[in-house]
Amino acid sequence: MALIKCKECGTDVSTSASKCPHCGAPVRHKTSGCAMLVAIIAGVFLIGYVAFYSGGTSSSPPTSPPAASLHQVEPKQTSTPIPWNGQNQDLSISVSYTQDTAGRIIVKGKTNLPSTTILMISLDSKATGSNPLQTKATVQPDGTFTSPTLGPESGIEAGQYTINVTLPIAHTQPQPVRLLIGEKAENLRGSLVEQMPPFGNVANAKLDLVIEPRIGATAAVATAHEAYMQKSLLDVATAQSRYLDKKIRLPRAVIELSTYFNYEYRDMRSSFVAFEVNDGTARAFRYAAADDSCAEKLRQRILAHGPIVGSFVFEIRASRYDSASPDILADLVEYSIPIE
Q: Given phi > 0 = left and psi -120 to 50 = alpha, else beta, which region is 151?
């Protein structure tokens, strides 16, 4: 048994195989000159035989229809994707969004990527100095994906935004997905696909949108919501569990960089920064990853200017909550520094 190269992907394939085990392309076997000559002679003899016994009228035997070529999907974000099988087909991602009753964004879409593919989703404001809101979504068996809600409880502020749906580098994907798209996503093609050496291919689809000011929210509702969010550290410290996974706004507080440590990790992305917050009623610490965009910008300002006074929004996440700890371990969601 000999090996030949697959015409499509270059993988070694057995001469006895009917198709490539890697990409599925049919294997074309070489025919010797002698075998070709025998086939021609046999064909001429068969045609003469049929013509003789049919009264001299010859008719060509019906030919098999040509193999159907794979439908090429135009790589438009608004196209309706068809199931992607990794063979000569453009990647397609359609993007849309809805808003919930609070005005937060939910990103939806459909793609021809394999089921369980992980997509990164961000909502980027075009306003200067704004931090993007980020989350992720998983492709379902029918090709659809839906993100968690993006935005604070008060809703997304009016303005111009861009939704980015990104297929990250392949090694972050589950193994069944990598088997289809390739270990470096080398099987992906189309205008949405970009190269990111040395990690391979990535892909991105985007949608620009304009959020209009919300109409219909009464002043009473807005006031009640603001009163609910504005809590002192003393309120939160006495009943921390009531505020798990809820945003808490400190309307006037001092925040400063208290400690920088990395738990002996060599990678800076595994390092942590501790911030100390004082609103005049209690003191608590907040820990944030150094590569978090919001925390890192605040850290740079604190290092350059010292303690900062402003409005800060925190969230006590259940995954970080420790009821035995006297401190408040919360994540910084956003902050606003007043112009003096």
A: left
Predicted TM-score (pTM) of this structure: 0.43
C-alpha pair distances (Å), 218 with each of 151, 176, 211, 214: 20, 50, 19, 10
Q: How far is CA 155 from CA 150, 166, 212, 239, in A?
A: 9, 24, 11, 26
The continuous run of DSSP H or E covering 200 comes out as: strand 200-211
Closest C-alpha to 118, from 75, 170, 183, 164: 170
In this structure, what are the phi and psi dihedrals at residue 196, rounded to the nearest 5 degrees? Answer: -135, 80
Q: Cα(1)–Cα(224) distance, rounded to whole angstroms? A: 79
In a 3-state reduction of DSSP, which class is residue 229?
A: helix
* pLDDT per residue rounded down to tens, the chain (340 residues): 566 777 777 777 676 777 777 777 776 655 555 555 656 666 656 665 545 545 544 444 444 444 333 333 344 444 444 455 555 678 999 999 988 877 889 999 999 999 999 999 999 998 877 788 999 999 999 999 999 999 887 788 888 899 999 999 999 999 999 988 999 999 888 899 999 998 999 999 999 988 877 655 555 555 555 665 778 888 888 888 888 888 888 878 888 876 555 544 444 444 566 788 888 887 777 776 666 778 778 888 888 888 888 888 888 888 878 777 777 888 888 888 865 4
Amino acid at 255: I
What's the angle, vertex CA 192, arms to CA 186 and CA 193, rounded to 5? 20
For 79, the token pair is 């196209």
CA neighbor of 119 nearest in space, from 86, 94, 82: 94
